[in-house]
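Holo model, flavin-adenine dinucleotide. Inputs:
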Amino acid sequence: MLWFWFFPVVLWLVAPHGCVSTSARLYTEEDPLVILSSSNLKPAVTNSSSAWFLQFYSSWCGHCIQYSETWKALARDVQDWQQAVRVGVLDCAQEENFDVCKEFNIKFYPTFKYFRAHSPETERGTPYRGADREIQSVRQVMVNILQNHTQQDWPERCPPLRPYSSAELLPLLGQRSDQYTAIIVEEPDSYVGREVVLDLLQFSGVEVRRALSLDLPLLDALKITTFPSVYLLHPNGSHSHLHVQKQLRFFFSSVLRTLAGVQRRVRPSSSTAVGQGGALQDQQSAWRDFSSSEVYAADLESALHYLLRVELATHSTLQGEELQVFKDFVTLVSKLYPGGGSVVKLMETLSDWLLSLPLPRIPYQAVLDLVDNKMRISGVFLGAELRWVGCQGSRAGLRGYPCSLWTLFHVLTVQHDATPTALDNTGLEGGAAPVLQVMRRYVRTFFGCEECGRHFERAAAASLEGVQNREQQVLWLWNQHNTVNDRLAGSLSDDPLFPKAPWPSPSLCASCHDEKNGVHEWNQDNVLLFLRKHYGASNISPRYSLSPQRLPAPPSPQTGQPQEEHRGGGAEEKEKRRRARRRRRLRTTGLRGGRVVGAGSWASTAWT
Ligand SMILES: Cc1cc2nc3c(=O)[nH]c(=O)nc-3n(C[C@H](O)[C@H](O)[C@H](O)COP(=O)(O)OP(=O)(O)OC[C@H]3O[C@@H](n4cnc5c(N)ncnc54)[C@H](O)[C@@H]3O)c2cc1C
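Output:
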């Protein structure tokens, strides 16, 4: 299933864009590796505190192009090892690199070379000629390279990778400490323990040590019978087996990273740190308990509150493309926001109003007036408070709005998957990925973080066309979100209490994770099932919500009894009901035919 975002990238690469642009694009700053050139190769590898594993490639070499996805995947797989060993590339087809490639004796492409930590200036690297260049093999070679360092040139930040003995480990049992110690007991030829040691390199609060299955006194004392196993010594002196659903590297690393008190060490980031920001702050005084396996209506409402009352407010007049994007966004939410409560009514009324206005320009103040004043009269309102729940940050400035915007769009993609005809007759139903297209245009036009918008636009331009149906739409957004998580892990916007990591974690969805040839692999069928459940209407908790989830139904014209509020039924019948509702609302809100009856100053504004 991966093909739908992978394929367009490959297509792009082999298309005749010319050598320069292809080479410029084979690896980009977004990839988790270092792009080297003649000016920084030697300074990087000389006397470096970490080892280096480099690929010298040529952007015109077809094999290099084909291999680039594997090399990127490897770099992503070991990006948390970078204080011990770094992955880089250098393009020998760039004119400025001709001389340095000659000096480093590069004759064929790709050529792989590694440099030990603290290499002298004269070092030109040791070639790696292993026939197998698959991720698992190269990763194990990287571990071997690290282990071949002597005590004198050992990379400073690389923890010991040797096995510990029972004589060293057993005395720790029952001792208090300021951190966890995880003992991974495994067969001598297994790499899992060393890989987990390196995976946790950037995390504080836990130390991982490796021990061998040959160490019988240790096995007896810890009652270990299967390998690999993890035994955990807690800071308070207690100790126990660590339970994981699958005995795989990814599961061990994920569980250890989420132990209470274990935190990623923050690294300086070039990305813009994006938190809730803006003019509004959460009024929160106390922490709101929540479950990470639920989605909270309060987060979705806070997203819309921020979006309508803060983000949009920076655009004093909406016109042209901005107006169209806003209309489409409102229509999308009105059709797909689950539940049918006050939020839906508000968005429906707003959508009807926007669509009924034959005007090329609308002042923002008019939108605000409608949302804040006119609709309230009929009991339709959107809580005017930021109330983060699943998007709470451990301190002000972290999480909040961007978290809730992701959440909102995940909900909308899942809802579109569940109600395929919901967008019929809106003008948005044409393409295969209408939710993503609106999201793309919204982010590009209004999202306050410009750099985020640029990143997202690049990703959309590269692969959105490959999305063919609603399921792929759900998965594309999930995958794109994980790419952003990857990029931001350890950055300043990474909340230490909610570290960015591949999502869903094994504890949320064990069946979403597999391993193939030693490399973590998503089971996308199960991911899709999980996303449908997690972001589905029935998993949205009303706890902490400020807006009524259900409005009292208007009396039936025939019986005078309240009508049942539901969102099912045939499209035609639904449309009739919708029009009747709209007429009623426009009457009660004082809006008619695109005019506000008795409106304030904005009504007299010359809109045309
Ligand atoms: C379109 C967009 C682009 C952005 N680009 C950047 C950027 O370039 N640089 C930058 O610094 N910040 C960027 N941000 C902000 C950043 O992604 C985070 O939203 C922000 O740092 C807050 O992080 P968070 O910890 O709340 O988790 P978020 O990443 O915001 O995730 C919110 C919640 O969604 C769930 N979730 C996590 N991953 C997934 C997934 N793969 N699929 C489905 N659900 C998931 C989790 O429950 C998580 O708590 C962007 C935000 C958006 C909406």
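Residues 166-264 form a domain with the Glutaredoxin fold (CATH 3.40.30.10). Residues 470-488 form the longest helix (19 residues).
Archived with the compound record.
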